[in-house]
UniProtKB/TrEMBL annotation:
Functional summary from the UniProt entry: Required for the transposition of the insertion element.
Protein name as it appears in the record: Transposase, Mutator family
Pfam families: Transposase_mut
Source domain of life: Bacteria
Length: 62
């Protein structure tokens, strides 16, 4: 789930994978970038067990 600058909620991805896997999160983030995401997310909310944090740190041009 994402939000526009105006605060409107948008569904950005639905992916079958291992939700705690760094590789799965990296694939999601790179897919979003390929679809036009210009900047890394300004805010991410999630469980500390998620490897989303590792994937975000390694995202090129964050």
């Amino acid at each position: 789930m994402g939000a526009t600058a105006e605060g409107k909620k948008k569904l950005v991805a639905v992916v079958d994978g291992q939700r705690e896997s760094e590789l799965s999160w990296r694939e999601v983030l790179l897919s979003l970038k390929a679809q036009g995401l210009l900047h890394a997310p300004e805010l991410a909310i999630g469980d500390s067990a998620l490897d989303l944090w590792k994937a975000l740190q390694k995202l090129p041009n964050r």
